[in-house]
Design a protein that fits this description.
Structural class: mainly beta
Strand content: over 45%
Order of helices and strands: EEEEEEEEEEE
Number of strands: 11
């Protein structure tokens, strides 16, 4: 069992920045890849970024150059630094490890 708790969401103007955190606890979560997904109203959940235990990283095309994913294995924590935010980044952002999901944190970008 893995427990995931996201934090750091909020309301920001277009062009602004936010940093999301995902604290993981449970069975050896640091051994697995971790990922950020997001889901906007009426849309399917989509992968934003993924980082393996050895820090191999992939990004969705829509966030490349603006978002940075990282992890601290000693703290079992993953981060998502988001800059140059756009209204289309508005969504609930979820942390994922294996088949486990966090409760989500709302990110709202106003124009």
């Amino acid at each position: 069992q893995v427990q995931l708790v996201e934090s750091g969401g909020g309301l920001v103007q277009a062009g602004g920045s936010l940093r999301l955190s995902c604290a993981a606890s449970g069975r050896a979560s640091s051994n697995y890849a971790m990922a950020w997904f997001r889901q906007a109203p009426g849309m399917e959940r989509e992968l934003v970024a993924r980082i393996t235990r050895d820090a191999y990283i992939t990004y969705a095309e829509s966030v490349k150059g603006r978002f940075t994913i990282s992890r601290d294995n000693a703290k079992n924590t993953m981060y998502l630094q988001m800059i140059s935010l756009k209204p289309e980044d508005t969504a609930v952002y979820y942390c994922n490890v294996r088949s486990f999901w966090g409760q989500g944190t709302q990110v709202t970008v106003s124009s």
